[in-house]
Amino acid sequence: MDTRDLSSHTIYRAGRGIEETARELGVDPEELIKLSSNENALGPSPKAVEAIREHAEALHSYPKASHADLGEALAERWGVTPEQIWLANGGDGAMDCLARAMIDPGQAALVPDPDFTYHSMSVRYHHGEVHTYPLVEADGFKQSPDRILDAYDGERMIYLTSPHNPTGSTVSLAEVEEIAERTDDGTLVVVDEAYNEFADRPSAVELVEARDDVAVVRTFSKVYGLAGLRLGYAITPAEWADAYERINTPFSASEIACRAGLAALEDDEHVDAITDLVEWGREYYYEHLDAKTYETGGNFVLVEVGDASRVAQATKERGVIVRDCSSFGLPEHIRVSCGTREETRRAVETINEVL
Question: Secretion signal: which residues (predicted)?
Answer without folding.
Answer: none
